[in-house]
Amino acid sequence: MAKGSRTTAGGATGARHPRTPASGATGVPGTAPRAVVVADVAGTTYRHLRLAVVALAVLLLVALATEILADGGRERFGSISGYYYSPVRDVLVGSLVATGVVLLAIRGRRGWEETLLTVAGMLAPVVALVPTPVAADRADGGCPAGATRCLPPGAAESVESSVLALIVVGALVLAATVVGAVVGAARGWPWRDFAAWGPLVTASLVWAAAAVSFWLARDAFLAVGHYAAAVAFFACTAALAYVNGRRVAARQGVPLMPAAAYARCYRAISALMALTLVAAGAYYLVTWWADREAWSATVFTAELVLVVLFTVFWGLQTAENWRAEAVIEEAGGGAPAA
C-alpha cells in the first residue's frame, strides 16, 4: 500500500493529503476541511509580530502628540521618558514592555542580529519600568536633603516591586533556556559556535549586571538605570540597523524595493541614530564643562528622533522580510531565505 493512502470500507484505496484530516474530522459529516499549513500560520504570526512593533511605536507617538496638544502645544517634561508622570504613563509603559516581549519573541538571523534583538528586548521593559528622576522642587518633598533630583514619593516602591518581578521572571526564562540548551547539546547542539550560544551568554550577562546593581547599588540603579537602559537600547538598535545594512545587500527578490536600497536606508538609519546619541551626549558634556544650562528640550528632541528612526527601521525590515515565513538561514549558514 502506498504511503499516505487509506483503505475504504470496500477495500479500495484512496489518496489523501497527509496534512488533511479525514472527512468529518471537524464534526461536520461529509465535509473535507481545508488543510492548514503550519508554515503559513507561522509566517502570518511572524508578520503580525513585526507589525505590532510598528503599531506600538506609533501608539506612543500619537499619545505624546495628544498630550502635548492638550497642554497647549507645550512640552513640559523635557523628555519622552518624563511623560511617565503624565496621563501618557499607561501607554508609555505598556508599549515599551510589549515591544520588549516582541523583540525577545522574534528570532533574528543567527549571530549578531539575534544577540542584539535579545539585548534590546531585555532593555525595553527596564526603560519602561524605571522612570527618570524629577527635579527636587517637583518631587513633593520626597528628595533627601541636598539632592537635586529623585523619584517622587511612592515611585521608588513601585519601581522596586516591578524590577524585582522582572529579575525573577528573567531568571526563570534564562534557567529554562539553559536547560533547553543542555538538552540540545546532548542532541548535537553546536555549543562551540558563538552564533548558537552568543545570545544566551549575552542575555545572562545583561541579567546579572541588572540584578547585581539592583541589589548592591539600589540608589544608583534608581538614579541612572533608566538612562543606561535607554542609551543601550538605542545603541543596540543602531547596531542592528548596521548589521542588516551589510546583510541585506546579498539578498535577492526582496519586496517593495531593491536590496541595495534597503542597505542604504539601514546604513543611513544606523548612522543617524549613532550621531543623535553622540551629539546629545557631547552637548551635555559641553554645557556641563562650560557651566551653562542645557536646552530643556534636548533629551525630548533626541528621544523623538530616535523613536522615529526606530519605527522607520522596523517598518522597512518588516517590508523586506514580508515574504519570508520566518527569518531563517539556508543549511550551512548561507544567505537567508526570502
TrEMBL record:
Q: What is this protein called?
A: DUF998 domain-containing protein
Q: Which UniProt keywords apply?
A: Membrane, Transmembrane, Transmembrane helix
For the region Disordered, what residue ranges are annotated? 1-30
What are the transmembrane regions? 51-70, 82-104, 116-136, 163-183, 195-217, 223-244, 265-289, 295-316
Record's superkingdom?
Bacteria
